[in-house]
Design goal:
There is one protein chain. The chain is an alpha/beta fold and 303 residues long. The chain has one domain: Rossmann fold, CATH 3.40.50.720. The chain contains 9 helices and 8 strands. Strands 3-2-1-4-5-6-7-8 form an 8-stranded mixed sheet, with helices on both faces. The termini are far apart.
Protein backbone atom coordinates (compact mmCIF):
# COMPACT_ATOMS: atom_id res chain seq x y z
CA UNK A 1 0.00 0.00 0.00
CA UNK A 2 1.23 3.49 -0.87
CA UNK A 3 1.38 5.55 2.33
CA UNK A 4 0.32 9.00 1.15
CA UNK A 5 0.91 10.89 4.41
CA UNK A 6 4.17 9.37 5.61
CA UNK A 7 5.73 11.52 8.39
CA UNK A 8 3.08 14.22 8.08
CA UNK A 9 1.42 15.53 11.25
CA UNK A 10 -2.33 15.98 11.30
CA UNK A 11 -4.94 17.25 13.74
CA UNK A 12 -8.47 15.89 13.38
CA UNK A 13 -11.19 17.55 15.45
CA UNK A 14 -14.26 15.63 16.53
CA UNK A 15 -12.17 12.50 16.00
CA UNK A 16 -13.62 10.31 18.73
CA UNK A 17 -16.48 8.87 16.70
CA UNK A 18 -18.05 8.68 13.26
CA UNK A 19 -16.38 10.55 10.44
CA UNK A 20 -13.64 12.07 12.59
CA UNK A 21 -12.62 8.67 13.92
CA UNK A 22 -12.54 7.28 10.37
CA UNK A 23 -10.40 10.23 9.20
CA UNK A 24 -7.92 9.82 12.07
CA UNK A 25 -7.53 6.08 11.50
CA UNK A 26 -7.13 6.49 7.75
CA UNK A 27 -4.53 9.24 8.12
CA UNK A 28 -2.61 7.08 10.57
CA UNK A 29 -2.86 4.11 8.19
CA UNK A 30 -1.17 6.32 5.59
CA UNK A 31 1.70 7.16 7.92
CA UNK A 32 0.53 10.40 9.54
CA UNK A 33 1.08 11.15 13.20
CA UNK A 34 -2.32 12.25 14.43
CA UNK A 35 -3.61 14.51 17.18
CA UNK A 36 -7.04 13.08 18.02
CA UNK A 37 -9.19 15.90 19.37
CA UNK A 38 -12.63 15.29 20.90
CA UNK A 39 -14.53 16.54 23.94
CA UNK A 40 -16.66 13.40 24.13
CA UNK A 41 -20.00 15.19 24.03
CA UNK A 42 -23.40 13.82 23.10
CA UNK A 43 -25.09 14.38 19.73
CA UNK A 44 -26.40 17.77 20.87
CA UNK A 45 -23.11 18.90 22.41
CA UNK A 46 -23.71 17.98 26.05
CA UNK A 47 -21.22 15.84 27.99
CA UNK A 48 -22.51 12.36 28.87
CA UNK A 49 -21.94 10.89 32.31
CA UNK A 50 -19.67 7.90 32.96
CA UNK A 51 -18.66 7.30 29.34
CA UNK A 52 -15.19 6.26 28.23
CA UNK A 53 -13.33 9.04 26.48
CA UNK A 54 -13.71 8.38 22.73
CA UNK A 55 -10.55 10.26 21.71
CA UNK A 56 -8.42 8.13 24.02
CA UNK A 57 -9.95 5.01 22.48
CA UNK A 58 -9.00 6.15 18.98
CA UNK A 59 -5.45 6.89 20.12
CA UNK A 60 -5.23 3.35 21.48
CA UNK A 61 -6.48 1.96 18.16
CA UNK A 62 -3.83 3.90 16.23
CA UNK A 63 -1.05 2.88 18.58
CA UNK A 64 -2.15 -0.77 18.55
CA UNK A 65 -1.77 -0.70 14.77
CA UNK A 66 1.78 0.65 15.09
CA UNK A 67 1.02 4.33 14.52
CA UNK A 68 1.64 7.45 16.57
CA UNK A 69 -1.12 9.56 18.04
CA UNK A 70 -1.80 12.05 20.82
CA UNK A 71 -5.03 12.64 22.69
CA UNK A 72 -6.46 16.16 22.96
CA UNK A 73 -9.51 17.34 24.86
CA UNK A 74 -9.88 21.00 23.97
CA UNK A 75 -12.96 22.96 22.95
CA UNK A 76 -12.43 23.74 19.26
CA UNK A 77 -14.46 26.95 19.54
CA UNK A 78 -12.42 28.28 22.47
CA UNK A 79 -9.64 30.56 21.22
CA UNK A 80 -7.07 29.59 23.83
CA UNK A 81 -8.06 25.93 23.71
CA UNK A 82 -7.58 25.84 19.95
CA UNK A 83 -4.16 27.39 20.44
CA UNK A 84 -3.24 24.66 22.90
CA UNK A 85 -4.34 22.06 20.34
CA UNK A 86 -1.87 23.40 17.79
CA UNK A 87 0.82 23.66 20.47
CA UNK A 88 0.27 20.01 21.40
CA UNK A 89 0.98 18.88 17.84
CA UNK A 90 4.19 20.91 17.80
CA UNK A 91 5.27 19.68 21.23
CA UNK A 92 4.60 16.00 20.56
CA UNK A 93 5.54 15.73 16.90
CA UNK A 94 7.60 18.85 16.12
CA UNK A 95 5.46 20.19 13.30
CA UNK A 96 1.97 20.50 11.84
CA UNK A 97 1.05 19.78 8.22
CA UNK A 98 -2.68 19.07 8.18
CA UNK A 99 -5.75 20.36 10.00
CA UNK A 100 -9.00 18.46 9.48
CA UNK A 101 -11.90 20.46 10.94
CA UNK A 102 -14.69 17.99 11.63
CA UNK A 103 -16.09 18.64 15.12
CA UNK A 104 -19.74 19.57 15.45
CA UNK A 105 -23.16 18.74 16.79
CA UNK A 106 -26.79 19.42 15.93
CA UNK A 107 -29.81 20.80 17.76
CA UNK A 108 -32.45 20.31 15.11
CA UNK A 109 -35.55 22.44 15.24
CA UNK A 110 -37.97 23.97 12.76
CA UNK A 111 -36.92 27.58 12.28
CA UNK A 112 -40.08 29.11 13.77
CA UNK A 113 -39.59 27.02 16.93
CA UNK A 114 -35.82 27.49 17.28
CA UNK A 115 -34.23 29.38 20.17
CA UNK A 116 -31.39 31.85 20.10
CA UNK A 117 -29.38 29.61 22.45
CA UNK A 118 -29.68 26.69 20.03
CA UNK A 119 -28.68 28.95 17.15
CA UNK A 120 -25.64 30.30 18.99
CA UNK A 121 -24.50 26.85 20.14
CA UNK A 122 -24.63 25.31 16.66
CA UNK A 123 -22.93 28.24 14.92
CA UNK A 124 -20.31 28.34 17.65
CA UNK A 125 -19.19 24.74 17.37
CA UNK A 126 -19.27 24.59 13.57
CA UNK A 127 -18.27 28.03 12.34
CA UNK A 128 -16.19 29.38 15.23
CA UNK A 129 -14.94 25.80 15.75
CA UNK A 130 -13.53 25.88 12.23
CA UNK A 131 -12.14 29.39 12.63
CA UNK A 132 -10.18 29.07 15.87
CA UNK A 133 -7.98 26.03 15.08
CA UNK A 134 -7.41 27.18 11.49
CA UNK A 135 -6.48 30.70 12.57
CA UNK A 136 -3.80 29.39 14.94
CA UNK A 137 -2.55 26.88 12.35
CA UNK A 138 -2.43 29.53 9.61
CA UNK A 139 -0.34 31.83 11.80
CA UNK A 140 2.11 28.98 12.43
CA UNK A 141 2.41 28.21 8.70
CA UNK A 142 2.75 31.87 7.76
CA UNK A 143 5.59 32.27 10.24
CA UNK A 144 7.35 29.18 8.86
CA UNK A 145 6.94 30.48 5.31
CA UNK A 146 8.25 33.93 6.19
CA UNK A 147 11.24 32.28 7.87
CA UNK A 148 12.13 30.74 4.53
CA UNK A 149 10.87 27.21 5.17
CA UNK A 150 9.08 25.24 2.47
CA UNK A 151 5.50 24.84 3.69
CA UNK A 152 3.19 22.21 2.18
CA UNK A 153 0.17 22.38 4.48
CA UNK A 154 -3.51 21.49 4.28
CA UNK A 155 -6.81 22.64 5.74
CA UNK A 156 -9.68 20.21 5.15
CA UNK A 157 -12.99 21.66 6.31
CA UNK A 158 -16.33 19.90 6.72
CA UNK A 159 -19.38 21.46 5.16
CA UNK A 160 -22.55 19.51 4.35
CA UNK A 161 -25.25 19.00 1.79
CA UNK A 162 -27.33 21.04 4.23
CA UNK A 163 -24.90 23.91 3.74
CA UNK A 164 -24.98 23.60 -0.03
CA UNK A 165 -28.74 23.16 -0.46
CA UNK A 166 -30.40 23.78 2.92
CA UNK A 167 -32.19 21.23 5.11
CA UNK A 168 -35.65 21.45 6.67
CA UNK A 169 -35.43 21.54 10.47
CA UNK A 170 -31.74 22.47 10.39
CA UNK A 171 -31.61 26.22 9.85
CA UNK A 172 -28.66 26.87 12.17
CA UNK A 173 -26.73 23.84 10.95
CA UNK A 174 -27.36 24.75 7.30
CA UNK A 175 -26.29 28.36 7.87
CA UNK A 176 -23.11 27.29 9.66
CA UNK A 177 -22.17 24.77 7.00
CA UNK A 178 -22.80 27.30 4.22
CA UNK A 179 -20.50 29.68 6.07
CA UNK A 180 -17.81 27.00 6.20
CA UNK A 181 -17.97 26.54 2.43
CA UNK A 182 -17.44 30.28 1.92
CA UNK A 183 -14.70 30.36 4.57
CA UNK A 184 -12.87 27.64 2.63
CA UNK A 185 -12.82 29.77 -0.51
CA UNK A 186 -11.33 32.72 1.39
CA UNK A 187 -8.73 30.56 3.11
CA UNK A 188 -7.66 29.12 -0.24
CA UNK A 189 -7.35 32.58 -1.79
CA UNK A 190 -5.40 34.08 1.12
CA UNK A 191 -3.18 31.24 2.33
CA UNK A 192 -1.85 29.88 -0.95
CA UNK A 193 1.07 32.33 -0.81
CA UNK A 194 2.25 30.56 2.36
CA UNK A 195 2.06 27.05 0.88
CA UNK A 196 -1.35 26.19 2.39
CA UNK A 197 -4.29 24.68 0.52
CA UNK A 198 -7.87 24.76 1.81
CA UNK A 199 -10.62 22.45 0.63
CA UNK A 200 -13.93 21.25 2.06
CA UNK A 201 -15.82 18.00 2.00
CA UNK A 202 -19.59 17.56 2.17
CA UNK A 203 -19.91 13.97 3.39
CA UNK A 204 -22.98 11.75 3.51
CA UNK A 205 -22.41 8.98 6.04
CA UNK A 206 -23.90 7.24 9.04
CA UNK A 207 -23.09 9.24 12.16
CA UNK A 208 -24.89 10.24 15.33
CA UNK A 209 -26.02 13.41 13.52
CA UNK A 210 -27.61 11.55 10.60
CA UNK A 211 -28.72 8.08 11.69
CA UNK A 212 -31.92 9.35 13.35
CA UNK A 213 -32.85 12.23 11.05
CA UNK A 214 -32.29 10.16 7.89
CA UNK A 215 -33.04 6.75 9.38
CA UNK A 216 -34.07 4.99 6.17
CA UNK A 217 -31.16 6.32 4.15
CA UNK A 218 -28.62 5.50 6.87
CA UNK A 219 -29.85 1.99 7.63
CA UNK A 220 -27.12 -0.66 7.55
CA UNK A 221 -27.57 -3.10 4.66
CA UNK A 222 -27.98 -6.78 5.44
CA UNK A 223 -25.13 -7.56 3.07
CA UNK A 224 -22.89 -6.10 0.38
CA UNK A 225 -21.38 -2.65 0.22
CA UNK A 226 -22.31 -0.37 3.12
CA UNK A 227 -22.50 2.91 1.24
CA UNK A 228 -23.15 4.99 4.36
CA UNK A 229 -20.20 3.75 6.41
CA UNK A 230 -18.09 6.77 7.45
CA UNK A 231 -14.93 4.89 6.43
CA UNK A 232 -15.92 5.49 2.78
CA UNK A 233 -15.30 9.24 3.14
CA UNK A 234 -11.91 9.02 4.88
CA UNK A 235 -9.80 8.14 1.79
CA UNK A 236 -10.69 11.48 0.19
CA UNK A 237 -9.54 13.26 3.35
CA UNK A 238 -6.27 11.32 3.35
CA UNK A 239 -5.64 12.22 -0.28
CA UNK A 240 -6.44 15.91 0.28
CA UNK A 241 -3.99 15.83 3.20
CA UNK A 242 -1.21 14.38 1.05
CA UNK A 243 1.57 16.00 -0.96
CA UNK A 244 -0.16 14.83 -4.13
CA UNK A 245 -2.98 17.33 -3.50
CA UNK A 246 -0.78 20.42 -3.35
CA UNK A 247 -2.29 21.81 -6.56
CA UNK A 248 -5.93 21.43 -5.43
CA UNK A 249 -7.39 24.27 -3.40
CA UNK A 250 -10.60 26.22 -2.93
CA UNK A 251 -12.78 23.23 -3.82
CA UNK A 252 -15.77 21.51 -2.23
CA UNK A 253 -16.14 17.77 -2.70
CA UNK A 254 -19.22 15.70 -1.96
CA UNK A 255 -18.48 12.14 -0.83
CA UNK A 256 -20.87 9.26 -0.26
CA UNK A 257 -20.15 5.55 -0.52
CA UNK A 258 -18.11 5.10 -3.68
CA UNK A 259 -19.11 8.50 -5.10
CA UNK A 260 -16.80 11.53 -5.17
CA UNK A 261 -18.44 14.58 -6.72
CA UNK A 262 -17.04 18.07 -7.26
CA UNK A 263 -19.59 20.59 -6.01
CA UNK A 264 -20.03 23.72 -8.07
CA UNK A 265 -20.65 26.97 -6.21
CA UNK A 266 -22.78 30.02 -6.90
CA UNK A 267 -22.31 31.57 -10.33
CA UNK A 268 -23.85 34.57 -12.01
CA UNK A 269 -26.89 33.54 -14.05
CA UNK A 270 -29.09 35.24 -16.66
CA UNK A 271 -29.26 39.03 -16.45
CA UNK A 272 -31.05 42.01 -17.90
CA UNK A 273 -29.43 45.44 -17.97
CA UNK A 274 -31.78 48.35 -18.46
CA UNK A 275 -28.98 50.88 -18.46
CA UNK A 276 -30.94 52.97 -15.96
CA UNK A 277 -32.70 52.66 -12.64
CA UNK A 278 -35.59 50.22 -12.58
CA UNK A 279 -39.12 51.06 -11.55
CA UNK A 280 -40.35 48.48 -9.06
CA UNK A 281 -43.56 47.91 -11.01
CA UNK A 282 -41.54 46.95 -14.12
CA UNK A 283 -39.53 44.21 -12.42
CA UNK A 284 -42.16 41.45 -12.24
CA UNK A 285 -41.87 40.38 -15.91
CA UNK A 286 -38.07 40.80 -15.80
CA UNK A 287 -37.62 38.57 -12.76
CA UNK A 288 -39.96 35.92 -14.21
CA UNK A 289 -37.98 35.97 -17.45
CA UNK A 290 -34.71 35.46 -15.53
CA UNK A 291 -36.25 32.59 -13.57
CA UNK A 292 -37.46 30.95 -16.79
CA UNK A 293 -33.97 31.14 -18.31
CA UNK A 294 -32.14 29.85 -15.21
CA UNK A 295 -31.73 26.19 -14.22
CA UNK A 296 -33.95 24.99 -11.39
CA UNK A 297 -32.29 25.28 -7.97
CA UNK A 298 -31.31 22.18 -6.01
CA UNK A 299 -34.08 20.94 -3.77
CA UNK A 300 -33.82 21.63 -0.07
CA UNK A 301 -33.33 18.43 1.94
CA UNK A 302 -36.63 17.34 3.43
CA UNK A 303 -38.86 18.86 0.72
Amino acid sequence: MTRLCEARVAIVTGAGRGLGRAHALELARHGARVVVSDLGTTRDGRKPEGEDDPAASVVREIEAAGGQAAWCREDVADWDGAGRMIALALERFGRLDVLVNNAGFVRDRMFVSSTVDEWDAVLRVHLRGHYCPARHAAAYWRDRSKAGEAVDARIVNTTSGAGLSGSVGQAAYSAAKAGIAALTLVQAAELGRYGVTANAIAPAARTRMTEEVFADMMKRPEGGFDAMAPENVAPLVAWLASADARDVTGRVFEAQGGVVRLADGWHGGPEVDRGARWEAADLGPVVRRLLAEAPAPAKVYGT
